[in-house]
Every structure is written in C-alpha cells, then in structure tokens.
C-alpha cells in the first residue's frame, strides 16, 4: 500500500514534468513562427519597450509608434540611414507621427554593438511593420558605416525631413 502510493506520486510528478515540457515546446514553436528576428525582439523588449511600448505601438506624449514609418524608411537609402543614425545618436526635436506630436529625447544606443543594432532594427522593420516594400535586412556593416559619422540628436532630427521627403511623405 505504502509502496503503491509512492509510485503514484512518482507517476504524477512524471506527468506534470511532461506537460511542462510540452507547453514549453508549443510555446517555443509559436514564438519561432511569429517572430523573424528573435534576437532583435529580446533587445527591443529590454531597451526600447519602456518608451515605444510592446509591439512598438508608441505612447502618447512620450515616444512615437514604430509600426509604419520604419518599414517605409527601410526601402530607401535616406530612410535606412535615418533609422541607423537614430539608434546610434538618438534624436531630439519635435516630430509628428499620425497627427500626434512628440517632443522628448530619444537616447543614443551607440554603446551597443553593430550586430545588436542591426538585429533590433530588423525586428522593428520586419516584425513590427506590416509593410516593408521589399526592403533588405540591415547588416552590422550598415551600422558600422553610419557610426563613422557621429552627430547630435538635433542633426538626426534635421535629417528626418530629408528621409521623409525621400519616401514621399
Ligand atoms: C527614453 C525613451 C526612448 C527609448 C528607451 C527609445 N526611444 Fe526611440 N524614440 C523616443 C523618442 C522620444 C523619439 C522621438 C524623438 C524626437 O521627437 O525627436 C524616438 C524616435 C525613434 C525612432 C524614429 C521614428 C521616426 O518616426 O522617425 C526610431 C526608429 C526609434 N525611436 C527606435 C528606437 C529603438 C530601436 C529603441 C531601442 C534600441 C528606442 N527607440 C528606444 C524615445 C525612446
């Protein structure tokens, strides 16, 4: 009797462990299917989400949404430079997105590696934006090239007008 109770408990433990493993596997598969740039998502969720919010939906009065313009920028040279210079140098100065004005400081992320910045840009462009007009992925070399011309956040804001013009906005 004592013996059978013990083995029942053992069986329960085994079943519980198996269910956990199954749930983790299903969770892992769903994750892999939904996100193309998983390493970029990890960076976004730790460094960007506090301002831009989950999925880049933005936060009124604080940080703009990142769900439409980045995908459009990424298909044009000036726009690609804009995205890269923004994460490297930050941006400062009022902007309007979807008729809402934002005038807070985007910090510089130049302390991050070229690879990590390319990953987070790819997550923003390809996972958060439904449209990306055939844009090619960002590479570490793209980030490295832009790193060679450091600038302040106000200059990045100025260049944003050039980038918007090049995408026809
Ligand atoms: C402290 C808050 C904050 C954090 C953290 C932050 N941002 Fe921003 N971001 C902003 C603000 C504010 C702006 C708009 C700046 C302005 O008004 O000049 C902005 C603008 C941008 C833009 C330009 C959007 C456009 O329409 O031109 C991109 C791209 C961007 N952020 C990406 C990121 C990424 C990627 C990260 C994480 C690596 C990040 N941001 C982290 C506040 C933040």
TrEMBL record:
Residues 35-128 form the Cytochrome c domain. InterPro entries: Cyt_c-like_dom, Cyt_c-like_dom_sf, Cytochrome_c-type_DH. Keywords: Heme, Iron, Metal-binding. Gene3D superfamilies: Cytochrome c-like domain. The keyword Iron applies. It comes from the Bacteria. It holds the Pfam family Cytochrom_C. One of its GO terms (molecular function) is metal ion binding. PANTHER family: ALCOHOL DEHYDROGENASE CYTOCHROME C SUBUNIT, BLL4482 PROTEIN-RELATED. This is Cytochrome c. It comes from Trinickia dinghuensis.
